[in-house]
Amino acid sequence: MKRAAGMTLIEVLIAVLVLAIGLLGIAGLQSAALSNNLISYQYTQASALAQAMTERMRANREGVRRGAYAIAADATPPAAPVNCAVSACSPIEQAQWDIAAIYAQLSSSANTSNIPNGPRAVLPGSRLSIDCDGGPCGADSLRIVTVYWDGSRRRPDTIDCEVLHCIRLGYLP
Question: Where are the chain's structural domains?
Fold first, then answer.
């Protein structure tokens, strides 16, 4: 009889061990789900910002054709010379304002003078580039809008899609 009672205690300990391993597995799955949810959110934000930039370019085709929508990924975030939300702007000024407005949403270091209040720094370590596919920009060249961000917060030295997360959209004027 005593022998049977000892076996029951061992069975309970084994059951508790199996339950603990199962709970650790569930905790690991929950952690992975939260991480993937954050990455999905970041891609959604980057996609919305890249789409917003292409829509601004579509609204200002003259500025695109004049080459005003060009910025390198490692460039200093631009400042808007005029608040185009409240006053009339030339196509070049509108392009500068558009780039500054998108950068204000990307980077906490962006100059926000002449930019209306709105969401700021929605992606960690984010940058914007607008360049032409395959070389110098002509009036009707395909423009590639790229939003880069450091989702893993590693702060790499290079800005490219192999090291950082990025999303690209094309715009053909």
Answer: 45-171
